[in-house]
Amino acid sequence: MTALGLGIIIFGVGLGIGLIGKGAMESMSRQPEASSKIQTAMIIAAALIEGAALFAIVVCAFIL
Amino acid sequence: MRKILCLLICVVFTGTLFASGSEKGDEFDASTLIMHHIGDSHEWNIISFNKGKENELNITLPLPIILWHKGLHIFMSSKLHKIVKIGDNYVLYEHGHFYITDSNGELFDAEGNIYIKNAEGEIIDAEGAVFTDFDKIINAHPLDFSITQNTASMFMGAILLLLIFGQAARGYIKRGGLSVPQGVQLLVEPLVLFVRDDIVYQQIEDQRKADFFVPYLLTLFCFILINNLIGLVPFFPGASNVSGNISFTFTLAIISFLAVNIFASRDYWKHIFFAPGIPFLIKIFIVPVEFVGLFTKPFALMLRLFANITAGHIIILSLASIIFVMKSFFASPLTIILALVMFCLELLVAFLQAYIFTLLTALFIGMAVNKAHH
């Protein structure tokens, strides 16, 4: 059951971070001069998603 | 030439990992090996030969044990294989815990049964059966402030940082701050400028406040980075899982939590506890969420660094274990290639996690000290 939960978490996180990466790359190719700002924003958004995922992993693997 | 060098490095890297494989008889237990390597210990294992066989040879660096039980007691971990006298009492080290005991090394449980250590180093009960359920033991514990492997590795990282930055600082004193950087300054200056300009100045608007936080954030960045990198060195002075240790990341997260909340502006607290401009009914939900958010931010910081670094160590060790699980030399090319790729990825992760930890701390500090935009 834990493994299934972890699989679902990774599915969601992969999708989320993948979409962020896609968005960032598209906007960077449109506006290369803004890449550094986009990169920072991308990493912050990815880190926030990852944070939520880490909570889910802790609950799934250590608490339940 | 370069290709040969690369191959040689791979072989040395993976070779040292193989050397640390712990085999008990014929059975190889990968998860025990991995858990042992990502954990902490009281002595620093340099290299082992013939593990699990009769002529087993372990070369270890003993580390100081510092205990507090009715006074301070310091001795080396090489004494730990038997009972050690501290003051009027004796102390026994078993399965990661210290127990206060008497001169016979007796351990008690709540029902009054007595367990002692036999000649083979196993704990046995009165009938001679091996005892493993150490949660039942009720002997007192001394307070443990020992310099463990992780602590020693962390000290090494700190000393290395002091040497590198001290050398760079001497260069700036001698030649002036605006001169062309030379030697180790070439390594330090881009890092410092990167942290200052691309992390801190971007997140904290007020220049004076930003300059106030630059030293802390720079220390944070370099300290995490150097511990990540030392953890990636696969032989003796490295290979400790320092930044993948939850106590290490917990301490860093606590310091960040304090840095955010001590210097927070009045606006910041007002937005957390009163949430101005929001209807009362929604406030009932928003305020608890905001309050919990104070603690989840450092909690996520703590878990992110811990999980990323530990996962990296686990993956590299698992790849090295493939050979022992398959029991074949033909698995080694696969292992070497995969381990090399993972090492490269982990180098990236070492930088990225140091960057993210610093960036998010700077972001939280920025949220707390920046003037609110209305």
- Quaternary structure of the protein: heterodimer
Helical percentage of chain A: over 70%
C-alpha geometry of chain A: elongated
Reading the helices and strands of chain B in chain order gives HEEHEEEEEEEEEEEHHHHHHH
Tell me the radius of gyration of chain A.
15 Å
Distance between the termini of chain B: 63 Å
Characterize the overall form of chain B: globular
Largest sheet of chain B: 3 strands, antiparallel
Write the layout of secondary structure elements.
The complex is a heterodimer of chains A (about 60) and B (about 375).
Chain A lengths: L1 H29 L4 H29 L1
Helix pairs in contact in A: 1-2
Chain B lengths: L1 H18 L3 E2 L2 E2 L1 H9 L4 E7 L7 E6 L1 E5 L3 E5 L7 E3 L2 E6 L2 E5 L5 E2 L5 E4 L5 E2 L18 E2 L4 H27 L9 H19 L3 H26 L13 H17 L3 H8 L6 H47 L5 H38 L5
Antiparallel strand pairs in B: 1-2, 3-4, 5-6, 5-13, 7-8, 8-9, 10-11, 11-12
Helix pairs in contact in B: 2-8, 3-5, 4-5, 4-9, 5-9, 6-8, 6-9, 8-9
Structure in a nutshell:
With 64 residues, chain A is mainly alpha-helical.
Textual characterization of the structure:
- The complex is a heterodimer of chains A (64) and B (374).
- Chain A is 91% helix and 0% strand.
- Chain A is mainly α and 64 residues long.
- Chain A is elongated, with a radius of gyration of 15 Å.
- Chain B is of the alpha+beta class and 374 residues long.
- Chain B has helices spanning 2-19, 30-38, 149-175, 185-203, 207-232, 246-262, 266-273, 280-326, 332-369, and strands at residues 23-24, 27-28, 43-49, 57-62, 64-68, 72-76, 84-86, 89-94, 97-101, 107-108, 114-117, 123-124, 143-144.
- In chain B, strand 1 and strand 2 (27-28) form a beta hairpin.
- Mean pLDDT of chain B is 83; it is low at 18-24.
- Chain A binds chain B through residues 36, 40, 43-44, 47, 50-51, 54-55, 57-58, and chain B through 198, 202, 296, 300, 303-304, 307, 355-356, 359-360, 363.
